[in-house]
Amino acid sequence: MIYGIGIDLGGTKILGVLTDENGKVLKSIKEETGNTNEGERIISNIISIIEKLKEGFEVKSVGIGCAGFIDYINGVVHESPNIKFLKNFPLGKTIYEKIKIPVFVDNDVKAGGVAEMYLGSGKNHKNFVYITLGTGIGGCIVYNGKILRGANNMAGEIGHITIDEFGPLCGCGKRGCVEALASGIFIKNYFIHGVKREIKTSVMEEVKDISEIDVPLITKHARKKDPFSLEVLRISAKNVGLMLSIIINILNPEKIIIGGGLVKALDVVFEEMIETVRLHSLKIPFESVKIEKSSMGETGVAVGASIMGILRSKGVIP
Hints:
Blueprint: E1 3-9, E2 13-20, E3 25-32, H1 39-54, E4 59-66, E5 69-71, E6 76-79, E7 87-89, H2 91-99, E8 103-107, H3 108-118, E9 128-133, E10 137-143, E11 146-147, H4 178-182, H5 184-196, H6 215-223, H7 227-251, E12 255-259, H8 263-267, H9 270-280, H10 283-288, E13 290-293, H11 300-313
Parallel strand pairs: 1-4, 4-8, 9-12, 12-13
Antiparallel strand pairs: 1-2, 2-3, 5-6, 6-7, 9-10, 10-11
């Protein structure tokens, strides 16, 4: 049996898993990332997690999924929005020099897409799109059974589809991206702005200060039919729906799989989101596509990274 390690390197957590070649999780470790400027400490933590996971196993590869612009061939992170020290950083080489096991680095959403392809809702489907909705919005396009990467490994940056050219400024520096109009950050900021304008909401009966407001709390009150909580989630759902309709019209996928921290929030207004998709999609591709929620859970990116690493060690690029 071949064993691999997968690391989900995020801005708030480092999640590591040991899997067999079929993606079965045998061990897992999660630690806080901490200060994202402290590169040496974070690298040391990653190595420590790998050493603990591989104890008692002959590990053939390590895969790392990380947000940002990744040179997956050379294992270089050119830029990561969540981890400040990763600027043109040879992450793969740096880890390899410490552990002497082949290390492969890729974008975290693409790693999540690999998990869906081999274990999740994308299994047995050659054309699907995996989407993460959370603090940001990302995508992985699987076309004819392989990840569509584009010229710079940046295909799938669906969060930067423009849906309002005069809309708010996005983290990428452009205006009106769907990420700036539907993400977790948008929901929280829009809600707080409304509270400051003295819009009534039952959320304020539960908190002492607006700094305590977050998406799970807004979702909780939306489920209780709080009008303003529902309004904010509906705006996000409508904008996600517009994005999905563009994806459907351009790519005609068999399936769209939605994961990430916002899934529970948008579940409250899921049918309204689907109605927006229907209104703006062409009839035939809309009627043939299945839109589903991911079943991979918190370990999806790490498991996908492990599978990706095992495949890459065999010379296969998913």
